[in-house]
């Protein structure tokens, strides 16, 4: 019910009902007043006609000869008559009900009718008389005094009075008819008002439903427009056009949004949009990874997700409304950062930051420069020695055959060293380009590793180093691998361990099982590797101790080759070291 009263149908319906009800009320009041006056006038006219007829009959029959039966036939229902002739003496009384004598006495004693015996004009008065139906009750009667014809100065009169029940009955019937007509009019008005309001508001209700559909994103629903060509029909046409325009604009916005999202997602640079209060609004996947990296590095103690340097740049952009570009070194990583303001009209509403991680690029540039410097350094010394000793031989500087042989031995060793360097460079380039071919076979891993370790027993004894092999796996365990390449890996690791372990030290080759991998570790009790150098030990030409490397014959490529071989087998390699305590190289091979 509340839904009807709150709807436009209910409001329009109630408005029409109130308006019609007010009109019907005014009409009924005036109609009842009019009918009341009309009935009174008709009653007075009827009384005069009846009184005139009775007076004529009395005059025709003469005094003392009242034709009672004829008069009764003339009188209406509830109408009473008194014939007074001579004055003050009732000749005949035609009455109904009780209190007849009281009524006669009240009429004759009433001062309004004292002159009726002296005049020729009728007198009509409304007076209070005893009731004809109930004792001790007074009622209002209409009494008409009509003079009889006589040439005498005093003459008789006919008094006619009517029971008020007759007039009230007529009025009640009329009032009843008026109220029935008003009630029928009200019912018809209610029905037609509801029908009319429903008919008028039907298109509006359809447009309301259509508006709800639009709010839910259903733009295909249409409001019927063939019902009428009036303003509501035109409104329906405009509503449908608005729905089509909204659908078109939303499709365009969604396309632009998807395009922008695709661009942001496919960008390799991190893009972050900031609000005016420095909160992050939008970020693409590279930015999410970068924020996660910063959060992990800063820990949960920091309230801000980004480094302070970026917030300083952001404050500069938002306060001064100026674009800023900077290259920053943050926690060992290199970033190129550009922050530009975002405007909403003439006021700034935020900023957008484009962050490019140039750490790898910086590292590669450093590796390239180091590579050129290392290759130049590695080749310059042997070439200089080859050139110097060969010139000495050509210039006959050598005094004895023994010196000549010594120089030739140096030239041979340096040429061998240059050959190994070039071979290692070619192998490394081939591995990094993905052209490394592996010839895998199922081999007993325990036997193979023990045999490879035994090759270095003599070298270890000569340097007074204890070399040992330990395995937790049974000897019948088979692993698919390229035996020659794994031997190259183990040779590099054991040779490095022996060369960097002082006398009376220990080198251990251990084989264990970890999950679905064979864990192979080469540990020593040597001088160790500085902590700052650990991340770079697998880089080309990287040497933790430049001063001792040349004397021990290293090229700086062995560990880089080792890592490529292990990764080609689907494994990985890592290093742990503490200075002056030892180093552990561990690599994993899938079983």
Ranges where pLDDT stays below 50 over 5 or more residues in a row are 546-552
What is the beta-strand fraction?
A: 15-25%
What share of residues is helical?
A: 40-55%
Q: What is the radius of gyration computed over CA atoms, rounded to a whole number of angstroms?
A: 64 Å
Q: How many H/I helical runs?
A: 15
Strand order of the largest sheet: 2-1-5-4-3
Shape: rod-shaped
Structural class based on helices, strands and sheet pairing:
alpha+beta
Number of E strands? 17
Q: What is the terminal separation in angstroms?
A: 78 Å
Biggest sheet character: 5 strands, antiparallel
- Would you tell me the overall average pLDDT? 79
Q: How do the strands and helices of this protein lay out in sequence?
A:
Layout: H1 2-6, H2 8-61, H3 68-74, E1 79-84, E2 90-94, H4 100-109, E3 123-130, E4 138-147, E5 157-162, H5 164-215, H6 231-266, E6 270-275, E7 280-283, H7 285-298, H8 308-320, E8 324-330, E9 333-344, E10 347-357, H9 359-394, H10 401-432, E11 441-444, H11 445-454, H12 457-462, E12 466-471, E13 478-481, H13 483-499, E14 506-514, E15 517-524, H14 546-549, H15 558-568, E16 572-578, E17 582-590
Parallel strand pairs: 12-14
Antiparallel strand pairs: 1-2, 1-5, 3-4, 4-5, 6-7, 6-10, 8-9, 9-10, 11-13, 14-15, 15-17, 16-17
Helix pairs in contact: 2-5, 5-6, 9-10, 10-15, 11-13, 13-15
């Amino acid at each position: 019910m509340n839904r009807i009263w709150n709807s436009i149908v209910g409001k329009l319906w109630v408005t029409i009902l109130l308006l019609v009800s007010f009109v019907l009320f005014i009409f009924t009041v005036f109609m009842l007043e009019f009918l009341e006056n009309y009935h009174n006038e008709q009653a007075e006219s009827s009384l005069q006609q009846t009184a005139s007829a009775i007076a004529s009959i009395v005059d025709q029959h003469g005094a003392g000869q009242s034709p009672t039966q004829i008069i009764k036939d003339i009188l209406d229902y509830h109408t009473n008559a008194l014939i007074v002739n001579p004055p003050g003496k009732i000749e005949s009384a035609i009455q109904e009900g009780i209190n007849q004598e009281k009524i006669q006495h009240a009429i004759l004693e009433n001062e309004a009718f004292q002159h009726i015996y002296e005049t020729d004009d009728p007198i009509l008065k409304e007076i209070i008389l005893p009731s004809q139906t109930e004792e001790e009750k007074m009622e209002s009667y209409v009494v008409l005094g009509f003079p009889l014809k006589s040439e005498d100065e005093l003459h008789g009169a006919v008094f006619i009075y009517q029971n008020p029940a007759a007039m009230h009955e007529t009025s009640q019937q009329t009032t009843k008819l008026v109220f029935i007509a008003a009630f029928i009019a009200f019912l018809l008005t209610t029905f037609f008002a509801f029908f009319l309001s429903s008919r008028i508001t039907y298109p509006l209700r359809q447009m309301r439903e259509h508006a709800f559909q639009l709010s839910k994103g259903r733009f295909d629903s249409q409001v019927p427009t063939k019902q009428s060509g009036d303003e509501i029909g035109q409104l329906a046409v405009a509503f449908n056009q608005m729905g089509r325009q909204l659908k078109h604009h939303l499709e365009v916005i969604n396309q632009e949004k998807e395009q922008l999202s695709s661009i942001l997602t496919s960008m390799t640079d991190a893009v972050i949009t900031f609000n005016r209060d420095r909160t992050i609004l939008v970020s693409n996947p590279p930015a999410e990874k970068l924020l996660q990296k910063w959060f992990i590095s800063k820990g949960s103690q920091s309230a801000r997700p980004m480094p302070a340097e970026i917030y300083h740049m952001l404050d500069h952009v938002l306060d001064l409304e100026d674009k800023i570009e900077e290259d920053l070194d943050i926690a060992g990583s290199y970033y190129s950062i550009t922050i530009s303001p975002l405007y909403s009209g003439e006021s700034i509403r935020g900023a957008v930051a484009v962050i490019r991680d140039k750490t790898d690029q910086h590292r590669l540039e450093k590796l390239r420069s180091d590579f050129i410097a290392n290759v130049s350094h590695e080749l310059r010394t042997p070439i200089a020695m080859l050139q110097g000793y060969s010139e000495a031989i050509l210039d006959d500087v050598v005094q004895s055959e023994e010196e000549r042989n010594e120089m030739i031995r140096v030239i041979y060793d340096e040429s061998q060293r240059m050959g190994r360097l070039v071979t290692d460079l070619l192998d490394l380039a081939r591995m990094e380009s993905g052209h490394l071919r592996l010839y895998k076979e199922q081999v007993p891993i325990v036997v193979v590793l023990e045999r490879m370790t035994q090759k270095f027993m003599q070298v270890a004894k000569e340097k007074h180093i204890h070399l040992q092999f330990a395995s937790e796996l049974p000897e019948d365990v088979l692993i698919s691998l390229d035996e020659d390449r794994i031997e190259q890996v183990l040779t590099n690791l054991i040779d490095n361990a022996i060369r960097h372990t002082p006398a009376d030290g220990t080198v251990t080759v251990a084989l264990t099982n970890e999950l679905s991998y064979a864990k192979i570790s080469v540990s020593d009790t040597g001088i160790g590797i500085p902590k700052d150098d650990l991340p770079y030990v697998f880089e080309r030409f990287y040497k933790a101790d430049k001063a001792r490397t040349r004397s021990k014959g290293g090229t700086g490529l062995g560990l880089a080759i080792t890592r490529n071989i292990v990764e080609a087998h689907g494994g990985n390699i890592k290093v742990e070291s503490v200075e002056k305590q030892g180093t552990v190289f561990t690599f994993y091979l899938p079983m």
